[in-house]
Input
Amino acid sequence: MSAGRRLALALALLGGALALVAAISLFVGSAALSPGAVVRALAGRAGAESVESIVTLQIRLPRVAAAALAGGALAVAGVAFQGLTRNPLAEPAVLGVSSGAAFGVVVAQIFGFGLSVLEALGVATFAFAGALLAAAAVYLVAVVPGGLSIQTLLLAGVIVGIFFTSAITVLISIVDFNRLGGVVHWLLGNLAPIPAASLALFAALSLLGFWLVLRHARELNLLALGEEAAVQLGVDAERLKRRIFVAAALLTGTVVAFTGPIGFVGLVVPHLLRGVLGQDNRLLVPTALLGGGIFLLAADTLARNLVSPAELSVGVITSFCGAPVFVYLLRTRYRVSL
Amino acid sequence: MNALVEFASVGFTYPQPERTREGGFTLTDVSFGIADGEVFGVIGPNSAGKTTLLRLLTRVVPAERGEIRLEGRPIARLAHAELARRVAVVPQDAPRPFPFSVEQLVLMGRYPHGPGRFFESDDDRALARAAMAATGVLELAALPLEQLSGGERQRAMLARALAQEPKLLVLDEPTSHLDLRYQAETAALIRRVNAERGMTVLLVSHDLNLAAEVCDRLLLLSRGRVARVGPPAAVLERDTLEAVFGCAVSVEVNPVSGRPVVQVAWPQEVKRSSLAR
Output
């Protein structure tokens, strides 16, 4: 089967699965709504002020959309970082880039940015700047003549992550805690409902990052052979690396700005997809967008319902899935590639 | 014959931190030409500058002094893809963090012919299959590279370079990981590619005898400078080699091909002392 056909088939299957998980997520939750009530609300046949309308349209629907977007963007960022660093273990949280973005968000909150669209754009800008800063720091710490070694890169990511997490703690301690009320909960990943206009901004920024990575998916394949080989095959490697770097930071910063630093999505989803589809980034990038959405949506549905009426942070679920995958990769793939 | 490649007083120095790495130092005033259609060899001791010369030619690093021209045009003014449509490299074995299949690897050789394309065209796929057939890896097309032997992997990389349809095929140490049989096959392949496809071949190797056997002309590098250029019999001459390599050698003539054969003049056997037991 040609690559194009495989991609179409995979996208159709994943699209169906995403619709299914989204539907399930709309129908379950701590507010005990009957399926009929949810359908009525979705069809617009329930009163605007009715409980089913508010729960379904103003709480569950935006949350489903945010989860799908955040998961998709994080998985694409994972594929991008893996291609950029030629390291199957790279992803935004492991590399400390999420922590840098989170630092940016906390700084923005100190400046008093709120929830309006314009302010959300401000927060996203700070998060993007933080992500760029952290990614540049990791790169500078890890780079040696001849490339990036897997071990050094991971260590650099850990160090940079710790640094920014500490910086966040310092900020929280010295600034009036009430102004940063939700920060601690948010730091574990928070898919609280986002206003529709901000959600649109979230989608636009995520899709911009996705498009940048997708455009260069074929070149990312060549970069996997090493920078020298990529240049000899006609790729402008320096330009490619800059663009992927910016796109991955944009995706990470955007997700962190709107939902907090959710870890391991960028590791688990691309790894599963690689197992089925192989290493071709032209297949991985678009399927990661859908696959990441499915994964985070499922994780969030679990987080909302496992200990209902209380709620787990979605980051807890993704970490419980991601940590074993990380260890598995570290013990297997990591070894052969040494 | 027209010159396909010209090096005109090319100089290059690696930045300080890289100087400690293998192959890293200075190239000084390197001038030579490769004629269209010839098989040209670059030889020399380790860290004589062979790898650097190859990197300069493929614009992995830019020349600091002098100029490198391809078909009369300075390569610094060619886009990367334009250069890759004319010059293809068969690298030494490289680390591969992601297990691509043989076919995926070979299809990558089609990139410079359509960098704007998302998927390869049917023509690209047909050319890739033909290249795999030419180097005998067509039946391995679906296998991940990791599962191939060193020789098979080398032939897969050669197939990728052929799929690139270059004017100049560069082979970087093609026999460094291969046993005798594959060395013979490599020599045969170089001749076939040159004769049947009319490709100019640049062979970079520390294997003097392979180079002497298949090349029309040789360039001997020594400490970043050109020591000799010319036909194998003129370059592989005892005094020159002893000076460049810093050891005693003997040069004979292969009775079949008439080409020079270089051997180390091994030190005389030393009588074992009764203490060394």
